[in-house]
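Repro:
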Amino acid sequence: MATSDPPKLWYKFAPRLSDGNMSMKALLGGKGANLAEMCRLGIPVPPGFTLPTTLCTRYSSASDTTSVVADVELAVREGVKFVEEQGKGARFGAKEEPLLFSIRSGARASMPGMMDTVLNCGLNGETVKGLAEKTGDERFAMDCYRRFIQMYSDVVKGLPKAELDEPLEHAKKTAGVQFDHELGVEQLKEVIGELLKTYKRHCGSPFPEDPYEQLTSAVLAVFDSWGNKRANIYRRLNNIPDSWGTACNVQMMVFGNFGDTSGTGVAFSRDPALGNPKPFGEWLPNAQGEDVVAGIRNPGPLWAADENGFVPALETVYPQLHAELVEIMRKLERHYKDIQDVEFTIQDGTLYMLQCRIGKRTPIAALRIAVDMVKEGLISKKEAIKRVTTEQLDQLLHPQVDPKAHKKLLGKGLAASPGAAAGQIVLNAEDAEAANKKGLSVILVRTETSAEDVGGMHSAKGILTKTGGMTSHAAVVARGMGRPCISGCSMMEISEADQTVVFKLSGGDLMLKAGDCITLDGTKGEVYEGLVPTVKPTTTGQFGEFLGWCDEVKVMKVYANADTPEDAANAVRLGAQGIGLVRTEHMFFRPERILHVRGMILADDPVSKKQQLDALEEMQRQDFEGIFEAMHGKPVSIRLLDPPLHEFL
């Protein structure tokens, strides 16, 4: 498409057939551009179409949305026709062989979990029967219908989640089962009936049966979600402009909940926590994609060597599909020259890729991946330097849990995001934000996190969850924020009502209350009681090698601010080539010194003033000797004593 051409209303994608490519993120969003690019590479992607960001911005800014809604309706009908032409006889709204869609947001910058998704769009009282007949599995069809009603009611109509969850939770409790997939056909029908009653009670009309009405409303809801509270918070925290808008991707459904030969998962081409080159990921059998990200079930790993006792590894259950997935990730990484975060679904033994994007990573992983990719010949040293931000380097200099310190282990989970964090327990995002405003260090403890918790996660020093895996919402967002995180710590029970956390220990239960202190070791996945001492990180190995590359390309020297011999020695250790400013007044802030400054300021005769100055002179002499020794001849700029009275009196 030439740059002067007006944007289209929709952009198709199917294997070896797509309008877009990876360079069109501003128009198609990251997800849409990458779906188009994967199709160009011949990767197995379910066909679909993308409504561009321009439609979203028109819709969001219009005082009268009549025109843009008409354009969305036209795009939906034309896009659906294209997908029908790619299929094997399935038709949208058909009773015999219904075609179903997923509707997902996709801004140009990755915003995991911040905007909305609707799955199984196109189901109604008639098409659900056709789906059951086509698949020969009525339970599967009813489960899809139940999920669709819940998602549509939540995302499109904004019904209370608690009321939408209640029928399913009641059914599981009545049946004496723990997981959704353990419910039978008749139980699911009862859940569906209750959900439809809830919808009519809130909306004043029956649940929509027209598939095109469903689809158009879902697309507009995705556009609306660009302006929801959690998306606004995330954009503010990550400097993403409000003016960008989101694209909307409408894609043919493939089903990970199709039975025991199906599943869904999230994977990374490298370990996003530590940067190890071995691909990493998790999967759930007989589940849909949102189940893994939501953290409501503990998933299984990709590799047999990483079995966790929850779910068998993908490599164990489907060795051929595992090998195919690993090869696709390697292909994508070579193509994009960066770590890839992918979502996949297995339907009846066939692998489909639903998404790829540049993977978020911890500071530790960012450094290792950048250095490793240079050595592998994928990127240059200059590109590696661009990949690691100054904020990430700063976080690498933060303390780690002291391995020699006495520690009382409370529990273990998955090491979802490395580093040490300690603070008071808080059990919801609102309390975390309130405590942060008071200057308190807190650990956010949740059964699982959701997109609504992002403000509290940013306010907390670390995150601890009872459920979820390495690719759950808590893990992904914490890594992006550089927060230590432990997920899947199943040996604790949380009561937000009682404001307590009970850890199941071998010697008996230990109950902690909100406000009690714990320490997280996000590198090991361990939780300790109280505030555990930390140690400074080292700047050798890959860190030192990376800083050496920075020295090779820099065009200016880096000086430090340092006011004491200790600060000067630390600056040299971290590579500073001089001191740009020694603020002499800062030498006197220690309690044993500040009294002499006050005495000098308040002295009412020359003799008393000279006594105080003589004492200060000796202190300064010792400090300057220490600073000059630490700098080994490197330049030092000194600001002469200029005591601000408000800091000393």
